[in-house]
UniProtKB/TrEMBL annotation:
One of its GO terms (molecular function) is DNA binding. It comes from Aeromicrobium chenweiae. SUPFAM superfamilies: lambda repressor-like DNA-binding domains. This is Transcriptional regulator. It holds the Pfam family HTH_31. InterPro entries: Cro/C1-type_HTH, Lambda_DNA-bd_dom_sf, MLTR_LBD.
Amino acid sequence: MDRDALGAFLRRRREVLQPDEVGLATRSGRRTPGLRREDVAFLAGMSTDYYVRIEQARGPVPSEQVLGAVARALRLDLDERDHVFRLAGHPVPPRSRRTDHVAPALLRVLDQLDDTPAAVVSDLGDVLAQNRMATALLGDQSAYSGLERSSIYRWFMQDPHDRAMCPPGQLESTTASHAAHLRTSIAQGGEDDRTREMVATLLERSAEFREAWARHDVHHRHHDLKTMIHPQLGELELFCQRLATEDRAQALLVFTAAPGSTTADKLHLLDVVGSTPLTTP
């Protein structure tokens, strides 16, 4: 591990990033350039002290998970991410089509969306990044691991949270849509260990998936009008717009409501209270 080179590289990348480029408020009167160390730590989900020790070439060797989080926080492209891994003495992550490294272009757009729910998802339904409004609307998707990171997998495994958000009249169409989306994603992106495990597990454990999978439906949705049941706000009618990367491996989902609608009022309330539970009279 080249601690000094790693610290110098991260420091330089931090200093050339401005707060508004990563969705943070610009601070007046600042004399130092770029982000503060605590900004990077916040964006990466770690303590400021831990990140400071990385930059100052102190402490233990950062794990691959930590380096991935720092790379996303600093909006590094794949070449820069690989450089960080090499400096830390870790093997470079494979350049597969499906990756947890969020496309910087999508992150830059997500950073600018503060008052409307938005999230970056993989073609398998993994939420890779979400803003505070998406967390308030959909819940904290970072809590899932393994195959359960995929909303498609959770749906067919009867996840109670995901099922509760779907109106009863749309259960059948949502089931068909999830199966078709998964088949299309595999056809376009190819099979890998994870997709093979997902399909095999669902075929074994979900009769609903076996029936939907046997239809061989395929499609990709670019935009849609969704009805969701929020646990506190009730029914929401939301337009879902997808902005996909060129290879369709990742997409930015943006949820909006018709101006002046009841849902627009509810989203405004969600913007105010965030994830704080609403009290009922």
